[in-house]
Design brief:
The structure is a single chain. The protein is of the alpha+beta class. Among the domains are: 13-264 and 366-412, no CATH class; 453-523, Immunoglobulin-like. The chain is built from 19 helices and 11 strands. The protein has helices at residues 13-31, 43-60, 83-86, 93-101, 105-130, 135-147, 149-157, 161-181, 187-199, 203-223, 227-244, 246-258, 273-282, 297-310, 317-331, 356-372, 378-402, 419-425, 527-550, and strands spanning 39-41, 268-269, 350-351, 412-414, 454-460, 464-471, 475-479, 489-493, 496-498, 506-510, 513-521. Strand 5 (454-460) and strand 6 (464-471) form a beta hairpin. Helix 10 packs antiparallel against helix 11 (227-244) and helix 15 (317-331) runs antiparallel to helix 16 (356-372). This is Membrane protein 6-pyruvoyl-tetrahydropterin synthase-related domain-containing protein. It comes from Periweissella fabalis. The chain crosses the membrane at residues 20-39, 78-97, 106-124, 130-148, 160-180, 186-219, 231-255, 291-309, 321-341, 347-371, 378-399, 525-546. Keywords: Membrane, Transmembrane, Transmembrane helix.
Length: 557
């Protein structure tokens, strides 16, 4: 039997030093947003924390999370909405597990952010070390990727948790593609793992990652070097990611085949040059100004400087990455007619600024390779890194204390004392509610008169909603509950089990006086799909980790 604690990887000071540096950077990136014992939270943040809280409470009750959400649902929506069917949660265990451990929810959120930032740092570290980058060049690339203003805005201003977890895995997509290009012994596994992790995180981010893979596919077709081998590896990676993401894919297909639902709106807001420049100069992390999201002054200046420099340098590795980054950066501004494709499927991207995640990833690679060439002094590199961190943390500090309440789109202070109340009472989104039919964009419950009887009280659990209703007559009423065809429910009226119609509306008969009605979701786990995804993900992670422990010098950590 192999004793992993005898391997030099655990004794190597280089690895230990890297680990401690990355951990310190993760703590630095996570500290400011929790000053004053509160979090400045957006509607997006409430939406994500609410779905994580329901999953946490399911685990605490010894239950498997169902695909429907009854508890901590926005007052704008209805109990029973299928958020868990459309919004992946497996990688959200980064936040869910700390919530199971800590009694104080704010401590759990802070712990989740430290873990997330550490994974982000480790991910870009893996990519850059694979490219033989080391020393200050390595940490400059890491700092650019972690501490740019766009990442801070996504992390803390938008609090778009799905997107920022996916952001942590984007470097692994590039790493996987490079491993295929270089015939690495792990070939398709890293690419399959990264795509699978992103599927289990955020579907739109997966589409962006898939576009990167398609671009690489076009490159190998054009180059025609080892095309057959590389194409087979891409197919293997695709199959691997499909197995890892089977739970998410199955849930989405199952609901979509049998129901119409309210999808997120389609539109495209490109970056506006004037607004972006103003936001850069004011060092703003205001999420409401999506046309002004930016990388921050030092990172933007560095990108433009390297791009100009690349025009006068001979072809080198760093030049290709910087030019690709700069081209994408210029494309996402408003001088292109994005209104022509706003209502197409491309409109699901909503903000072209989302592509800044790829811009800064390509830039981090190019910048670190440039510095590795020795073009800059040690002192200059140090000043650049300090400047990047200082500017992003200053922006985060100003946002944390000043971007609240009016003219912020609903930003409020979230503390341990108002945590549960905020999750229950904040109006967020109506996404994924069932519609009247597949072609309709009208919610099935729209236009229903809920005042035929008076709802005295409403109680929710992780898998049910209960109403106490006063009725002036014997009548049939429609409950404010979302139902989906081909999912399993049971309805009790005054203790009597009622039949459930195969529709998206819960119509029940009530008698004169007080009635107690319970709508309960029964066994809507899709357990077999969850087992396939979880076991394959755990198995692949263990295999890669074990292979690294045995051959740690073959993978540059």
């Amino acid at each position: 039997m192999i004793n992993i604690f005898n391997f030099q990887v655990f004794k190597n000071r280089y690895h230990l030093t890297n680990f401690l540096i990355l951990l310190c950077l993760a703590l630095i990136a996570s500290y400011v947003p929790f000053l004053g014992h509160f979090v400045n939270i957006s509607h997006d943040g409430v939406y994500h924390l609410a779905r994580f809280q329901q999953i946490t409470e399911a685990f605490k009750a010894g239950e498997i999370p169902q695909v429907l959400n009854f508890k901590y649902v926005s007052p704008s929506s209805y109990s029973g909405v299928a958020i868990n069917s459309f919004y992946p949660w497996i990688t959200g265990l980064i936040f869910i597990i700390p919530n199971l451990i800590f009694h104080n929810p704010l401590w759990a959120i802070a712990c989740g952010y430290v873990i997330l930032n550490f994974i982000t740092l480790l991910s870009i570290h893996q990519l850059l070390t694979y490219l033989k980058v080391n020393g200050l060049a390595l940490y400059t690339g890491i700092i650019i990727y972690e501490f740019n203003n766009f990442h801070m805005l996504d992390l803390y201003s938008r609090m778009a948790i799905g997107e920022v977890i996916a952001y942590a895995f984007f470097p692994l997509v590039i790493l996987g593609l490079l491993m295929i290009e270089h015939h690495n012994k792990y070939v398709y596994l890293f690419l399959g793992l990264s795509l699978g992790l992103i599927i289990n995180t955020h579907i739109l981010s997966f589409i962006i990652a898939l576009i990167l893979v398609v671009i690489y596919g076009l490159i190998i077709i054009f180059k025609r070097t080892d095309f057959k081998y590389k194409f087979i590896q891409l197919i293997k990676a695709g199959i691997t990611s499909f197995i890892l993401g089977f739970y998410v894919i199955y849930n989405i297909i199952f609901i979509s085949m049998n129901n119409g639902f309210l999808s997120p709106p389609k539109y495209i807001t490109p970056l506006n040059p004037d607004n972006t420049l103003q936001a850069i100069l004011s060092n703003s992390l205001a999420e409401q100004q999506s046309a002004a999201w930016n990388l921050g002054a030092p990172v933007t200046i560095l990108l433009l400087s390297l791009f100009i420099l690349s025009l006068f340098k001979s072809a080198t590795a760093w030049k290709r990455w910087i030019i690709a980054s700069a081209i994408l950066f210029f494309i996402i501004f408003s001088w292109l007619p994005y209104n022509l494709i706003a209502t197409s499927p491309i409109g699901l991207i909503q903000f072209t600024a989302r592509l800044l995640a790829i811009v800064v990833l390509l830039m981090a690679i190019g910048s670190s390779l440039f510095i590795q060439k020795g073009y800059l002094r040690w002192s200059s590199i140090t000043i650049i890194n300090i400047f990047i961190i200082a500017v992003s943390l200053t922006a985060t500090y100003n946002f944390h204390y000043n971007y609240l309440y009016q003219n912020t789109g609903g930003h409020v202070k979230l503390s341990s004392s108002n945590y549960y109340q905020t999750l229950e009472t904040t109006h967020t989104f109506t996404d994924y509610l069932p519609t009247k039919n597949k072609q309709s964009k009208i919610v099935a419950l729209n236009g229903v008169d809920f005042n035929k009887a008076t709802i005295v009280s409403k109680t929710t659990t992780i898998d049910s909603v209960s109403f106490k209703i006063n009725s002036k007559s014997n009548q049939t009423i429609t409950l404010p509950v979302a139902l989906y065809k081909d999912l399993h429910y049971v309805i009790y009226t005054n203790g009597n089990k009622m039949s459930v119609s195969k529709s998206n509306i819960a119509a029940v008969k009530v008698k004169t006086g007080t009635n107690k009605i319970v709508v309960k979701s029964i066994g809507n786990y899709h357990l077999f799909a969850l087992i396939i995804s979880l076991f394959s993900l755990i198995g692949l992670l263990l295999y890669i980790f074990w292979s690294y422990i045995k051959n740690y010098n073959e993978i540059m950590l």
